[in-house]
């Protein structure tokens, strides 16, 4: 008899497991795959049972017998119950294989007939369980799945542990899950074999919670709401899904600043314990839940005289954390605070906030509590909230400023100055700064439904446009409406034309038009006295001119940097500081570029400008990458990508830069995935600028991966796109040398030389020294492919020295690598890759270092090739690459050997041979050998 239970998950459950659990699940699967056992542990709702069932489903097909038990708290007092769940259905199969005493004891324990106990039949029962598992394992692998091990009855736990410790090499795998609040899982290992792997499941990140909610169908939630769900759930997937479900079922979503609706299923976890507290103690906890950072002194100031004793009792009931953290009052889980607050009647909440509005020491907190304690409009409350919003903005907390601004609008009378909608628009602009673009867009759309004042309408349209990010094509219809609302007001027109400049660049891919729109916007803003918009427009104009290689670029940058400056614009990612950085980077002034972007990053972090932080993290990563600090660049690029994905801002650009950093210092496989993601999303957005940049990144990654044909395809598209865009400065993307190198690898020497010649002319005009050095490196490869190895080696030696002096560490290492490879081809004797390896190691360029290792290994193999055969006259009409391939065929080299010696792909060898056959009028490799021997080919 074979017992098999079906543990396969419903179709939707498996992806839930993958979200945030990839590494843990992989480690557990490897353990099980090698015959080991696994103990999953973590708090309630963290996903242990889901992972357990998925692991069981994976292994169940390989197991002959699958046994399962799932204990519950209410049944944990019943002896042998878990053992009966595990072995009850196989008792008939194994009982005949047990000694009589063991069989009697086991049957008595499992069936309830007789009075078997551990005290009376302890040894017989222990041996019976061990013998039963061994008997099942003798017929094939056994899988034991035990969920909620903390509720196992003590007798079953003792018997299972005894057997597990003595199974030895028997093919029995145990998968167990146990609820733990900390790391106290050790005692539960006693029921598992000695080699069991303990895996703790921790909370999900905000991004992972967002992905989980999307997968379960709770889509379209604002990022601010997802942030609240993550904070309230503490990253617990079960709690997060329950909160998402409550939001989906709630016809009126909470307004910004309001608490999330906590479903009854989660409130029940808290309310039963609350009932054990006095009414006064419950009110004390309500005041604590309403406070941002509750402390005992704050509770005393709010009138809670017995706070110490009440919080001690709450900690005993598990409502508050028991670990002392000084004077702070910390809830055991954020959900406790949320459920307590949600359950309280509205008048009790207002009373708690009223007490805190005078007890809190921070003016921002006092204003917030005053607003939440007040009903209806009140100009004094609105004014205090507006002042608190200014203070929050100055402190670098624009998200808090946005929340306070919305509260101010709610309490502002309709006839107040500024009015409610003007306050809402300020809140929307603060939300943009904080990276909460969906909240900003929703506020602006709401204002547009009723606003009639042109200035308010244009301001709202600007928020809608900015919240679209790079997907400006999606808001194309907004521009005519904004122009119509602007009328002939130069200040409002300047705002619209500044955004039209971005539209020309992103949607149309037209640098010239974008430059003209920006210049027009700057002129309108200057006429209206709007220095902020003027500075932004000048910065845009300077950036466009820089990328176009326009001669006016330096003068425009000076105009954009001229005083007076707007502090907010000076550090903005589209401001003059960013433009100056780009100029420094393209002009090979790496130390100055680094210090500039580092200062900008520090300032935007101080101000809480999320989009600018994402941008400057990326620019600093790019600077470090060019300097050859690949490890540092990789850390910065990953940080930028995490922040971009968390905020939904700049994801394409950050994925693009992260792919370059991964290819240089991390995982080439990850680099390919990121580059393709960036290309796909840029094409979806219709952003021609980032389609070009993402393709350039993909081309570089493909080159590192050894896919020269892929590099050529990607970078040919980049060349075509940038020609259409009007980008003439080769320092912008720096892909030209990679394209030329890849063309050499595939045998397209003429095209490679053309890329080099055209780009060199532009680089000479703009004095781009590092670009010229990289082009010289590529031209050395062209000469080597043409047979002039001595000239190529001489040029590469010079290139390596120039790149080192300019501070381009990675490019210097690449030149040293090519130099070593050419020396290996040029003459007899072992080639030394020591210098290239040293330079790549200094850069922490691990993917490149692996290429060096491969080259060293290939050079260490014994050379059994026959002596070179002189080329027959018939080969004289072939191109250089074709002659080299044909000559190696004559030497007896295989296609793979030819590819290795010429540093090209096998596909390129095959394509080249096809051309050789066609040109020589022959059909096979054998015919080439006959030509070498001077024999007639039929």
TrEMBL record:
One of its GO terms (molecular function) is adenylate cyclase activity. Residues 871-936 form the HTH luxR-type domain. Pfam families: AAA_16, GerE. Keywords: ATP-binding, Nucleotide-binding. InterPro entries: AAA+_ATPase, AAA_16, P-loop_NTPase, Sig_transdc_resp-reg_C-effctor, TPR-like_helical_dom_sf, Tscrpt_reg_LuxR_C, WH-like_DNA-bd_sf. The keyword Plastid does not apply. One of its GO terms (biological process) is regulation of DNA-templated transcription. GO terms for cellular component: cytoplasm. This is AAA family ATPase. It comes from Streptomyces chromofuscus.
